[in-house]
Amino acid sequence: RSPSRGLGDVYKRQKLNLGFILNVIYYFVIQNKFKNKFNLSFKNFVYLICLVLNEKPKIILTINDVSLVYQTLVFNFPNIKCLAIQNGNKTRKDLRKIINHDIYFTYGDYEKKLFKSLNIKYNKIIPVGSFYAQKIKDIKLPKRKNLYDICMISQYQQSHTKEKKIYSMIKSIETMSMLLSKLVNNSKLKICIILRENSKEEINFYKQYFDINKKNIFFIRTPNNKSCYKYLFQSEICISFYSSLIKEALGFRRKAFFMDFTKRNFFNEKEKSLIIYRNNSFINFKKFFNKIYNMTEEEFFKKNSKKIHFYMSNFYLNKPNTIINKLLEVNNE
Length: 333
What we know:
Blueprint: H1 3-30, H2 42-55, E1 59-62, H3 68-76, E2 81-85, H4 92-95, E3 100-106, H5 110-117, E4 121-127, H6 131-139, E5 148-153, H7 167-185, E6 191-194, H8 200-207, E7 217-220, H9 225-232, E8 235-240, H10 244-251, E9 255-259, E10 276-277, H11 282-293, H12 297-311, H13 320-332
Parallel strand pairs: 1-2, 2-3, 3-4, 5-6, 5-8, 6-7, 8-9, 9-10
Helix pairs in contact: 1-2, 2-3
């Protein structure tokens, strides 16, 4: 590094620090203009506000659409364009926290329906499919070699067992585990259970239903979201309560469905279809499962293509990152 460049970097840092300090002072002069609506720590709240005051961005962009940091900035800077990319399956509980978006990039039209039903304000919703799944596809698409008949995506959380508001969620996961274990324990079907917390408590929860001494039941510890995709592509059918991985599996044209026994539309649409199973009868479930199991992927996709695209826009045809980048370029101009 040349001496002149080094001095220039020091000057820029000093200038930034001085500007930031001045904005901290300015914040305390006008602090009544800002509200810590989402109860961030005082230090984090002041830092965020002063950072935006100092940098004066034209756009605030997030890939975590329910982030309280993002929501705090959206609330306090209504004149700055705020763009959010959906980062997971959304429930009515999640979406009630959202205040406003200028532009919201969603999985599909399903979120439009949710926003409308909850009276959530936005300027524009653009269905783009899964940004993350598209990136995984572009890096390296896993080989379609089925090592398992079923991939069950766990959504167990220890904290949920103590929350009355989502008691129905735990009961639904228990019913799903009971039906699947009855199907698997007395057959040669292989099931891999992708763990969420990777904890003893989570494994002990599923031990109540699955006979772990059998060689057709596998608990999979996943260090990150990326590793989950490997098992989606190694399984004949993917099943979960309401995980976004099901919608992404459908986007990849894999056979997948939700199992929801809440009798409500809080987590999934209140309907019966080949994508959402709601009947807690084992006889009915076995018929439903076998029907899908005996279909080819192409048959399953054709029967459900309209609903699949409703949930997950085609990220093969319209790449999410291309759509998002084009929009950012227009705004930058």
